[in-house]
Specification:
16% strand; 4-stranded antiparallel sheet; disordered C terminus; Nucleotidyltransferase, domain 5; 6-stranded mixed sheet; 20 helices
Length: 669
């Protein structure tokens, strides 16, 4: 068909001026039918060729339709091509027409079966979510990563984050990061029908959402919607986001040391899109997002924790299985039921609401991960496990631990190994660095005992108190406190000499007698009776000091006294001793004690403890504390006191428990 409009108009002018069609054929060297069409049509576009029917192909059109219907149940790579349809028609059905006619017929049939779609409206505040997959090198290992793609169709904002695999934890974590990236929560989010999002599908659409999606939707209060299965065009915007991010941000194959570095790179790329203008828009993506942000929901005050919770039980190896991997737990919790809480980074195991074990999250399968500290309690009962147990094979400790173990095993062999394991169990409470520094300090002081090392470690773990700074606190800076008067402490030095001497004597006697009381008297004074030395008569069961020259002794064997015998000079001045007078009943008992059981042998006074074992008749734990003359007799039951009580003359009193303090005098004078 002639399409030269200039030649077309020239031929029409000559024909209008009287040139015949035959002359025009000879002059322009064109076909007569072409000259006839030019004379009847103003321009070439107004001419339409009438449809032609292919009489040879018409009987075979039903076979072509049958071939195309069979292809609907076949793999897309094993369907009929145009050439294969032509060959089957020729060989099987006896078709004698041309190949071009078959191609035109198949194109017309395919065009009739194509689906038509309705354009969708995207109001502000709605989002779409989907997972995509790509290859990446993370930590030097080539692996297939699942990246979550989220988009806002109204403003064309994209957000992408990569994870080891698609699961509930990564779904929740990607949404939490997306909401933080936006500074708000979309009112409605569209998802596909993957098992991470949907638990049940009816009539081609998800009807019951997964627990993980319900948890995060309940926390952020957004609505969710599921598209129909095999209908990705219902969330076509995020489908294009998946393709766009893979083609532009992951080609060539990205190399990153960790997923955190990879995700930081992807987030930076998403922010750089804010300065671009989308097709068919006059404003930039950032400007459109500023308008859409007004329609977003506010973020909750408490951030959502992306996690998956399951119940599990440990076995006889103190291992708990979570997500196709085994993790160790402390040996004392073996055979217990655990609550496993798995996040993107960690796995925690709880017993009765308390975290007893925590491991880094591993994304492999059928692997076992040990924490050697969890098996120290077992190794303490089985010391050989420290050298042959699987949890300790790759456990590398600082050199000071080896030095400590060699010293302990050199001293005590097997018991040294147990002591070493006991020291290792300090890692259940303290950090490895603090324990290593504590062991180094202990070894420098030739200390290998558990208690000594524990004290050093506690000292290393003590955090010094920081000084309180008033910088940035103008209200506190206005507070004025008077300077303390240091001279007030000088009044303590102005006491008289008698009072100082008396206090020193009180402290010495009280400390000695308190030691005797806690060691001997509380044990029932089973070593023998207690005798008073030379001095005034006394009735108290509490030991009294020696008056004059003599020996202050600890008594017989088994008395439990806390001080040794020593010579006391007659002229040694102990100062004054303030004593308490006994009660009336004690004074009466004192008079019948045969001169208070004082022994005088060779001019030396001593405390006699040979009277035998004095048991506590009242069973009240105080025991007898009486005076004795060295012979078996009735012991006087005394009253426990923090002061030594000396006997005196009987006096009348209305209160049997009334006590009176008085000065005895200077000892030795």
């Amino acid at each position: 068909m002639l399409q030269d409009m200039e030649l077309w108009s020239k031929i029409r002018r000559l024909l209008d001026r009287g040139m015949s069609k035959r002359q025009a054929v000879k002059h322009f060297n064109l076909n007569f039918r072409t000259i006839d069409k030019i004379s009847k049509n103003v321009d070439p576009d107004t001419y339409q060729r009438p449809p032609r029917t292919n009489t040879k192909l018409t009987p075979f059109l039903s076979f072509i339709e049958g071939y195309l219907e069979e292809d609907q149940n076949s793999h897309r790579k094993q369907r009929h091509t145009k050439k294969r349809v032509f060959e089957r028609l020729r060989d099987e059905q006896g078709y004698t027409g041309c190949y071009r006619s078959v191609c035109k017929a198949m194109e017309a049939m395919v065009a009739k079966k194509k689906t038509l779609y309705m354009p969708l409206a995207h109001p502000p505040g709605e989002a779409q979510f989907d997972f995509g997959f790509a290859d990446a090198v993370i930590g030097g290992v080539l692996q297939k990563v699942a990246y979550a793609a989220i988009s806002l169709p109204y403003s064309n904002v994209r957000y992408v984050q990569a994870f080891p695999k698609e699961c509930i934890e990564t779904l929740q974590e990607s949404l939490v990061r997306f909401f933080r990236f936006l500074g708000g929560v979309p009112r409605k989010i569209t998802f596909d029908n993957s098992k991470v999002n949907v638990r049940k599908i009816l009539y081609g659409r998800g009807t019951e959402s997964s627990i993980g999606l319900l948890q995060i939707a309940s926390h952020h209060l957004f609505e969710y919607h599921f598209c129909r299965i095999y209908e990705p065009q219902e969330k076509g915007h995020v489908e294009n986001c998946v393709k766009y991010s893979r083609n532009n941000w992951m080609v060539p194959v990205p190399h990153f040391p960790t997923f955190a570095a990879f995700n930081e790179y992807l987030e930076q790329k998403c922010r750089s899109e804010f300065d671009k203008t989308s097709a068919g828009q006059e404003k930039t993506i950032g400007q459109l997002f500023a308008e859409e942000k007004l329609f977003l929901l506010s973020l909750p005050e408490v951030e959502f924790e992306a996690r998956r919770t399951t119940l599990c039980r440990s076995d006889n190896l103190s291992l708990v299985r979570f997500d196709c991997n085994d993790y160790s737990v402390p040996g004392e919790h073996a055979y217990k039921q655990f609550t496993a809480v798995g996040s993107v980074d960690t796995v925690r195991f709880l017993v009765d609401g308390e975290v007893v074990a925590e491991h880094p999250r591993h994304w492999g399968k059928k692997k076992t991960y040990y924490d050697p500290i969890h098996y120290l309690s077992i190794a303490e009962r089985r010391p050989n496990g420290l050298d042959f147990g699987a949890p300790f094979v790759d456990w590398h400790l600082p050199e000071c631990f080896d030095v400590l173990r060699r010293r302990l095993e050199t001293k005590a062999d097997r018991r040294g190994t147990r002591e070493y394991i006991r020291i290792l169990r300090l890692l259940e409470t303290y950090q490895l660095d603090n324990l290593a520094r504590g062991i180094e300090r202990a070894l420098s002081h030739n200390t290998t005992a558990y208690e000594g090392i524990r004290l050093y470690v506690e000292n290393e773990s003590t955090v010094p108190v920081e000084l309180f700074s008033l910088d940035g606190r103008p209200m506190l800076q206005q507070v004025q406190l008077p300077e303390p008067d240091i001279n007030i402490y000088s009044t303590l030095l102005e006491r008289n000499d008698d009072e100082e001497t008396r206090n020193e004597t009180d402290g010495a006697v009280e400390a000695s007698f308190t030691a005797v009381e806690t060691s001997g008297l509380r044990a029932g004074m089973r070593g023998g009776g207690i005798s008073l030395c030379q001095g005034e008569c006394g009735s108290s069961g509490i030991l009294a000091p020696t008056f004059g020259a003599g020996t202050l002794g600890s008594g017989g064997e088994g008395s439990g006294a806390a001080f040794e015998s020593r010579e006391v000079s007659q002229f040694e001045d102990f100062g004054e001793l303030r004593l308490q007078s006994p009660t009336e009943s004690e004074q009466d008992a004192c008079e019948s004690a045969d001169a208070w059981g004082i022994h005088r042998e060779s001019g030396v006074d001593h405390l006699d403890r040979s009277a035998g074992d004095r048991q506590d008749a009242s069973r009240d734990g105080t025991g007898y504390s009486g005076v004795s003359d060295g012979q078996e007799g009735a012991a006087l039951q005394g009253e426990r006191s923090d002061y030594a009580i000396a006997g005196g003359e009987g006096r009348e009193t209305s209160d049997p428990h009334e006590e009176e303090s008085f000065d005895v005098g200077t000892l030795g004078s």
